[in-house]
Amino acid sequence: MADSGGLHRWDLSPSEAIALQKELAGRVVIRPLKRLPAMAAGCDAAFDTLKKRAFAAATVYRAKGLELVDRAAAAAELTFPYVPGLLSFREAPALIEAIGRLAVRPRCLIVDGHGLAHPRRFGIACHLGLLLNLPTVGLAKSVLVGKYEQPAEERGAWTPLVDRGEIVGAALRVRSGVKPVFVSVGHLVDLESAIAIVLRFSSGRYRLPEPVRAADQLSRQLARSGDVNATTQVTTVVRTRGRAVKPPSHRRPPVVRGETADRSRANDR
DNA sequence: GCGACAG
DNA sequence: ATCTTGTCGC
């Protein structure tokens, strides 16, 4: 139905959630990725003005050509408050639902939020990666824990994000001359692989990698239009699919149902 | 006790 | 995260 693994419940109190994180943190696997994934899914969530409902989106991109391959979304009632360090207990259920609705099973996730760069080394990227058993990268726009030196201005430059004597992530310049983003290990990757993945799925035209940028836009769009299908608890909102694996001789750009996919330009942030 | 604090 | 248009600069 919703959970992918049923590893634990979600209706926990903040203190119980913290205890669970300490327990699950030991299961995170850090290792280099043998080969960069051909496709990766960006994951992000937005909220309605009443902040009573979350809209999660998952967008799959192909590394080659940075083309959108598939995307899905889900809406859910918010049951957990926003508490720094406990983000996954607020957003993960909806994100898991959205990811589960993808027609194309992603082999890698880039999650909006931190991974190991977390007080208990178990940010939302670690949580999702562990539950879905997928290589996962954490990508945040600001720091939760740790300090860092400003990296060089060129795309690809990075400096370590250090917390309590440990390198928990990196301040990575995805676009030259633009504020860096913070990359950290989620699960089944190491920091170098995580950085390589973020650079591979970004063109350098925007601060965020394409998958996350698209998921951010989709979730935000759905939150504003307070989309229909969002009536009950974990409910479907939209679903759009494109080409799956091994596309025919004639490539066809993904078609978005109900709305035209503007791929021209935009202003991030 | 005083700040810091993903989204 | 969210309330929100134009504007300055590469």
Mean pLDDT: 86
What global shape is seen? globular
Percent strand equals 15-25%
What's the number of structural domains?
A: 1
Classify the helix fraction into a percent range.
10-25%
Describe what this molecule looks like in 3D.
The structure is a single chain. With 269 residues, the protein is α+β, with helices and mostly antiparallel strands. It has one domain (37-241): archaeoglobus fulgidus dsm 4304 fold, CATH 3.30.2170. 22% of the residues lie in helices and 25% in strands. It contains 5 helices and 9 strands. It has helices spanning 14-24, 88-100, 124-132, 191-200, 210-224; strands at residues 39-47, 53-62, 67-77, 109-112, 136-140, 158-163, 166-172, 181-187, 235-241. A 9-stranded mixed beta sheet has the order 6-7-8-5-4-1-2-3-9, with helices on both faces. The longest helix is centred in the last third of the chain and has 15 residues, at 210-224. The protein is globular, with a radius of gyration of 17 Å. Residues 230-269 have low confidence and may be disordered. The structure holds 2 DNA strands.
Give a quick set of tags describing it:
globular; 5 helices; nine-stranded mixed sheet; archaeoglobus fulgidus dsm 4304 fold; alpha+beta; disordered C terminus; 25% strand; 269 residues; DNA-binding
How would you summarize this macromolecular structure in one to three sentences?
With 269 residues, the protein is of the alpha+beta class.
Detail the topology: elements first, then pairings.
Elements: H1 14-24, E1 39-47, E2 53-62, E3 67-77, H2 88-100, E4 109-112, H3 124-132, E5 136-140, E6 158-163, E7 166-172, E8 181-187, H4 191-200, H5 210-224, E9 235-241
The chain binds 2 DNA strands through residues 44-49, 51, 82-85, 87, 90-91, 112-114, 117-119, 123-124, 138, 140-145, 177, 182, 220, 223.
